[in-house]
């Protein structure tokens, strides 16, 4: 799977939407639009997924490490990973 550290420096997930870190970064904005990351239907699905993951966190009140390991056991939990990381303040990568 392609990955670039540069991407996370140029595009961030904030308040349910993907935004560029630099308002003049047309290339990053074009990528967001091309991939339709802020499409209303996708955003709604992503928000529901994040809410479900947030509700699971209650079962791991004392350990982020155990919670992360639990989530890693099922790849479906890691859908919308950027949103999950931002919303919960966790790091999977």
Write a compact overview of the structure shown:
The chain has helices spanning 5-10, 26-34, 40-56, 64-72, 81-88; strands at 11-14, 17-20. It is mainly α. The protein has one domain.
Topology of this structure?
Elements: H1 5-10, E1 11-14, E2 17-20, H2 26-34, H3 40-56, H4 64-72, H5 81-88
Antiparallel strand pairs: 1-2
Helix pairs in contact: 3-5
Give the distance, in angstroms, between the N- and C-terminal Cα atoms.
13 Å
The figure for the number of domains is: 1
Radius of gyration: 14 Å
Q: Main β-sheet: number of strands, strand sense, barrel status?
A: 2 strands, antiparallel
Percent strand equals 5-15%
Low-pLDDT regions: none
Q: Would you tell me the structural class of the helices and strands? A: mainly alpha
State the total count of DSSP E strands: 2
Determine the mean pLDDT.
91
């Amino acid at each position: 799977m392609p990955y670039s550290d540069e991407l996370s420096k140029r595009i961030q997930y904030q308040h349910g939407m993907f935004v560029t870190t630099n308002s003049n970064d047309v290339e990053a904005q074009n990528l967001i639009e091309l991939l339709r990351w802020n499409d209303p239907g996708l955003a709604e699905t992503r928000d529901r997924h994040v809410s479900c993951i947030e509700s699971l966190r209650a079962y791991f009140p004392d350990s982020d490490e155990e919670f992360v390991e639990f989530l890693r056991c099922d790849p479906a939990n890691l859908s919308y990973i950027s949103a999950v990381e931002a919303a919960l303040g966790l790091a999977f990568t």
